[in-house]
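In the previous lecture we treated proteins in isolation. Real proteins rarely work alone, and many bind small molecules. This record shows how such a complex is specified: first the sequence, then the SMILES for pyridoxal-5'-phosphate.
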Amino acid sequence: MARVGLREWLALAPVIASGRLARYNGSEGGPLAYFEAAFSDKFDVKHTLTTSNGTGALIAALVAAGIGPGDEVLVPAYTWIATAAAPLAVGAVPVIVDIDATLTISPSDILRKITPATRAIIPVHMANMACDMDAIMKIARDHGLIVIEDACQAVGVSYKGRRVGTIGDLGAFSFNQFKNISIGEGGAIVTNNDEYFARARMYHDIGAVFRGHLDNANMPPIPGINLKASQIQGAMLKVQLRKLDPMLRRMRERRAMMADIIARNPNFRVGPSHDPAGAAGLHAIFETQDDAMAFARAQKRGVQRIHDSSRHIFSFWQPILEQRPIHPKMNPYAWTERKVQYPPDMCAASLDILKRSCRISVGENYPQPLMRYLAHGMARWGNENPGLLRPSPGYRNS
Ligand SMILES: Cc1ncc(COP(=O)(O)O)c(C=O)c1O
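The predicted 3D structure, ligand included, written as tokens:
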């Protein structure tokens, strides 16, 4: 994530001095409008709408695309719970799909999980790793599905030369404290579709039609909720956007250097990527979960077995797995044609991969020589201590 510092602090002063902290308070232009124009330009997308957070961006994107009761939405087994909770917020139901060794949604399991009620796919670019967007877009077009990319954890990352979030019908980003653009809380929706944009604007501003959200759109107004961002957020976003590409460059360089070094270790496999040239995230896959645990323990810093940070794994999404509605009469699971269920053995392949995988930090804010040193340590692991792990003949980094 990008560091927050003096520049953000200085950018806040004029906004505070102006007294115009809210978006539609005589400050319709201001930092938010500037940021949205700059973001659209950088990401090569027609519309950007800043929101109060990434969860709100996902919900507004689903509303914009007309997803609702009776609809099934495909989400991956490895993501923050917000991805799965967002469909429920619009009355639809999440259907959980396996990930593959790239740690992103498996196109072949998408095909298995499609039913007549499926309306949308939310591929998640987890931990700066791009999904297989060519395959996903083909499936979506073949089956008439809407694609809402969850790029919350991969702001600015590219897939075959295009920024993730801009490839599907809509994209959602998070700018919370831990993201590539980091302002505490914040988010955005992007789309090239004028109608989706108009509906998202209406929804994110409670249906305040007098603010001109539908000025050029030929559609009736819809009510919404308040997901607006403030000009305080806008001022920080302007600064952080300028830091984004230099930071991504540092991440890609370090990722390439570290992947190259650790690939020399025959005891595990560098996790595959759908676009190694654009990849900014790094992981390793072991033959057994014991090996993954031993590796994480030995490295001490910057390495975590994914299953040990369980918050992002479907098996820990208790409110969703238990299908508990916010009100007995507002229960999306009662509105589907078929009974959607979450059996315990669902997505066993994902659990297996996540138990055998470690995420490796590329240390974008640390000196490159330090990251090289750490990578060499990883490359040596297991060779110096052969007793630590079983031989794993199937895992050669050739
Ligand atoms: C994959 C993913 N989707 C959605 C979100 C939700 O974003 P926010 O925290 O800004 O609401 C997050 C945040 O952590 C996330 O990681």
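Summary for your notes: The CA atoms of residues 250 and 364 lie 6 Å apart. The domain at 6-240 is CATH 3.40.640.10 (Aspartate Aminotransferase; domain 2).
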